[in-house]
Amino acid sequence: AYLKRIFRDLFIREGFQSDYVFDWTILKYEESQRVTPPARPMGPGAGTSSGMPLAMANANRHT
Fold first, then answer.
1. Is this prediction's pTM over 0.85?
2. What is the pLDDT along the chain (63 residues), one digit of tens a residue?
3. Cα distances (angstroms) measured from residue 19 to each of 4, 14, 16, 22, 40
4. Dist CA 56 CA 48 (whole Å)
């Protein structure tokens, strides 16, 4: 607890602002993006299960 407090005080005193995003979080995210292949784009046959265009299906859902 003591070390946490003195590092927090130093952080504030030096004028840093925390965005709560840590280096190891960014590294893990970048690594997972390299390992996972990108998703395939939807082809011309892809659509909603109702057969309606996506924009129309969304409009009908909200009414």
1. no
2. 999 999 999 999 999 888 877 777 887 888 888 776 666 666 665 555 555 555 554 555 555
3. 17, 15, 10, 8, 32
4. 10
Alpha carbon of residue 61 to chain centroid = 26
Question: CA-CA distance, 57 to 59, in Å (whole number)?
Answer: 5
Identify the residue whose tokens are 């859902």.
61
Determine what percent of the chain falls in helix, strand and coil, rounding each to the nearest 5. Answer: 50, 0, 50
Model confidence pLDDT, tens digit, residues 30-42: 888 877 666 666 6
